Amino acid sequence: MAKGIFSGLAGRVSALQTRALAALTVAALTGLSGEAAAQSSAGGIANTVSNSLTGMGNLLLGGAFLGGVALCGAGLLKVKEVSDSDGRDSYGPAIWRLGVGGGLVALPALSGAMSGTLFGGSTPTPAIQSGVGWRVN
Fold first, then answer.
1. Structural domain count of the chain
2. How do beta strands 134-136 and 124-126 pair?
3. Does residue 39 lie within any of the structural domains?
4. What percent of the chain is predicted at pLDDT more than 90?
5. Distance (Å, rounded) from C-alpha 72 to C-alpha 67?
6. Which of 8, 24, 40, 74 has its Cα between 20 and 30 A from that of 95?
7. Which of 116, 111, 14 is CA-nearest to residue 63?
8. How many other CB atoms sit within 10 Å of the CB of residue 61?
């Protein structure tokens, strides 16, 4: 029998955790629907939902940054652990942690540059005239 990625997850999540996540989801959706119901037009509802999702995106990007910092720290600790061992361990897991951590740390900056490029916002560009620093167009 083939096992999926999430096959072992169902046994690890307790009933209390499931109920807590369900209550949190209902509370978030209830708050969103209350704000949306106060609007008088479809455009107002769309703006409310868009603003809520923008905040969620910023939260996810902040979490990615903090997770990246934690993975970089774990990678550095793993490098030290491997270097202190007698050559029994490999550097592979440490390098993977550092690479993924660096990618997660760079994700907010990459997201800002991509959104500015795709949607025409103001993105930081190198200030070539002064030679130092950044300026916003």
1. 1
2. antiparallel
3. yes
4. 23
5. 9
6. 8
7. 111
8. 17
